[in-house]
Amino acid sequence: MNKDLFEYTLRLGDTSLILSQRLGEWCGHGPMLEEDIALTNIALDLLGQAKAFLAYAGEIEGKGRNEDVLAFHRDANHFRNLLLTEQPNVDFGFTIIRQLFVSTWQHYLYSELTHATDKNMSALAVKSLKEVNYHLRFASDWTLRLGDGTEESHQRVQAAVNELWNYTGDLFEIDQVDEALLKLGIAADMKKVEASWNKHIRQVLNDATLSVPEINNFMRTGSRKGVHTEYLGFILAEMQFLPRAYPDAKW
Q1: Domain span including residue 207
Q2: Which pLDDT does position 247 carry in this prediction?
């Protein structure tokens, strides 16, 4: 059970960590000061969640790896973050749609995990959910403003939806880790999460006059096995440089 719980917790921590790193790239580059600060604050929220989940993962593993070691001293194939989180920012609209997809997923996932039989997991979910609710409201509001805004803003966010939809299948993959922990009442029921996610996303996109893509090609998946897009390596190269260059440094 510990091996499965470690893997499951790692997935949650890595997802928040990599999305935090992506959003941090907006610091000082936002389209306006208020949104620059908002994106940076969301990045900090996610970083806090990543720290908490990775710290718990280290405790479960019991090999002396704390959250810093897990964050800065693993290679890309050992990361378990959602593929969506590593996609580049492209523009503000692209960032908003990525946030909408991930925050909606986190909202319904953490809502399920608040009832987890593992008390640490449920406590982390309760704490994280308070922040994710704001992230979801922020992303939903901006999707409406951009989708139902100017012709250019509509075209940009529709292009973002079309591109990012290819990675949404990765959100709901179920493997033996999910199945084993679900039987113990620890993991979330991803079928419930998927149904709720689809309902919310389709409603927001409809209200924003955006269309749900008709996917004729296969969905990009693989995050649970450490199979990522080319973007993750570049993120880690920047994120991990200092700790790897100076492994004995104390910050």
Answers
A1: 2-245
A2: 80
